[in-house]
């Protein structure tokens, strides 16, 4: 039986309910996928809660990454056929057993990358790719501060920075998450619950600070992130798990002639050339072992509980829902 997890109005995790659906008929340029694995991300929570704009009138299907098997092709689709294993990352619609996806947003999965790995890595892995290669190109020997180092993006970023030869400094909450981040490429991990991360970064860098900070936490860390930067440094804010930094003023950047970015994955992924290049790099890293995908699987029916655990910062790595 085909079904989806839907939300009729913005709100808490309890707005998520199961609903039977009819598998869609793929339209022009679309591919029908029977989904086998679906990733859960903070983006889903931002949208579900109403923090980000609600994109439909009612019955929104959340979820922005998944993997599965091609079941049918719409008109004018080239490059795919029934039975192909594929993956994607596009906004909303993933919490379902079946969905139609524009072929231009699909990438084929190589044999040495599993569906669960792909569903746990497409959004997070491609985010890590653009952060480290496009928002700011991290170089060997550079000290880099990355918040939420034990999260899905943070773990992949740590491994990727280690492969690039950077000196990765992470923050995480609690000894278990600190240990996990250290096992995934970070040279130094600061327990923000027990230490002042700004003071520790200055100590680690002999007072110099870092040229770039990657911050997906927002309100709780943004000012500290600014204080960790070298003159002419770059702050890349790509999320706000602790809430929006409402007191931030542009004038705060004048302390060091700093640069501020607020990039989003889907603008990068709209370029087919970028999507193919970035996903090829991601899959190659998974296949050769440079990138290990830390996943926890749950039934699709557990989507609400998965949201609650993610919001409560009780998870590490990637949560993947199995229909």
| Rg (C-alpha, Å) | 20 Å
**Tally of helical segments:** 10
Give the N-to-C terminal Cα separation.
Answer: 10 Å
Find the CATH superfamily of the largest domain: Medium-chain alcohol dehydrogenases, catalytic domain
Largest sheet: 7 strands, mixed
Mean pLDDT level? 95
| H and E string | EEEHEEEEEHHEHEHEHEHEEHHEHE
CATH topology of the largest domain: Quinone Oxidoreductase, Chain A, domain 1
CATH architecture of the largest domain: Alpha-Beta Complex
What overall form do the CA principal axes indicate? globular
Task: Determine the strand fraction and express it as a percent band.
Answer: 25-35%
Helix content: 25-40%
> Segments where pLDDT lies below 50 for 5+ residues?
none
Number of strands: 16
Number of domains: 2
Domain Enoyl reductase (ER): 11-321
EC number: 1.6.5.5
Keywords: NADP, Oxidoreductase
Organism: Candidatus Rhodobacter oscarellae
Sum up the structure in keywords.
323 residues, alpha/beta, 2 domains, Quinone Oxidoreductase, Chain A, domain 1, seven-stranded mixed β-sheet, 16 strands
Structural summary, described in words:
The protein has 2 domains: 3-121 and 293-322, Quinone Oxidoreductase, Chain A, domain 1 (Alpha-Beta Complex), CATH 3.90.180; 124-263, Rossmann fold (3-Layer(aba) Sandwich). The strands form 3 sheets. Strands 3, 5, 6, 7, 8, 15 and 16 form a 7-stranded mixed β-sheet that branches. With 323 residues, the protein is of the alpha/beta class. Helix 3 packs across helix 4 (152-164) and helix 3 (122-135) crosses helix 9. The mean pLDDT is 95. The chain is globular and about 60 Å long. The protein has helices spanning 42-49, 115-119, 122-135, 152-164, 175-182, 197-204, 222-228, 265-269, 272-287, 303-311, and strands at 3-7, 16-20, 30-40, 60-61, 66-73, 85-88, 98-102, 106-108, 143-146, 167-172, 188-191, 210-215, 229-237, 259-261, 295-299, 318-322. This is Quinone oxidoreductase. Keywords: NADP, Oxidoreductase. GO terms for molecular function: mRNA 3'-UTR AU-rich region binding; NADPH binding; quinone reductase (NADPH) activity. One of its GO terms (cellular component) is cytosol.
């Amino acid at each position: 039986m085909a079904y989806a997890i839907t939300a009729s109005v913005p709100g808490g995790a309890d707005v998520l309910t199961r609903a039977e659906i009819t598998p869609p008929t793929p339209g022009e340029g679309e591919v029908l996928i029977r989904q086998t694995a679906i990733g859960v991300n903070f983006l889903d929570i931002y949208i579900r809660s109403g923090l980000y704009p609600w994109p439909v009138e009612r019955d929104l299907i959340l979820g922005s990454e998944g993997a599965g098997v091609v079941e049918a092709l719409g008109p004018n689709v080239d490059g795919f056929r029934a039975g192909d294993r594929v993956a994607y990352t596009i906004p909303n619609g993933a919490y379902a057993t079946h969905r139609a996806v524009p072929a231009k947003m699909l990438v084929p999965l190589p044999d040495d990358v599993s569906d669960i790995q792909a569903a746990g890595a497409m959004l997070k892995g491609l985010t890590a790719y653009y952060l480290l290669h496009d928002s700011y190109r991290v170089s060997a020997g550079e000290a880099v501060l990355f918040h939420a180092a034990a999260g899905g993006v943070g773990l992949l970023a740590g491994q990727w920075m280690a492969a690039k030869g950077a000196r990765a400094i992470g923050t995480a909450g609690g000894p278990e998450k600190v240990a996990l981040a250290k096992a995934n490429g970070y040279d130094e991990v600061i327990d923000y619950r027990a230490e002042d991360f700004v003071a520790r970064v200055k100590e680690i860098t002999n007072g110099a600070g870092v040229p770039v900070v990657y911050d997906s936490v927002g309100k709780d860390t943004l000012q500290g992130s600014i204080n960790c930067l070298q003159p002419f440094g770059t702050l890349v804010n790509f999320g706000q798990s602790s809430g929006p930094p409402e007191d931030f003023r542009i004038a705060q950047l004048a302390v060091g002639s700093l640069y501020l970015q607020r990039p989003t994955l889907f603008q990068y992924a709209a370029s087919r050339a970028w999507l193919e290049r970035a996903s090829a790099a991601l899959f190659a890293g998974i296949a050769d072992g440079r990138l290990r995908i830390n996943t926890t699987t749950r039934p699709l029916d557990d989507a609400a509980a998965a949201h609650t655990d993610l919001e409560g910062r009780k998870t590490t790595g990637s949560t993947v829902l199995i229909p």
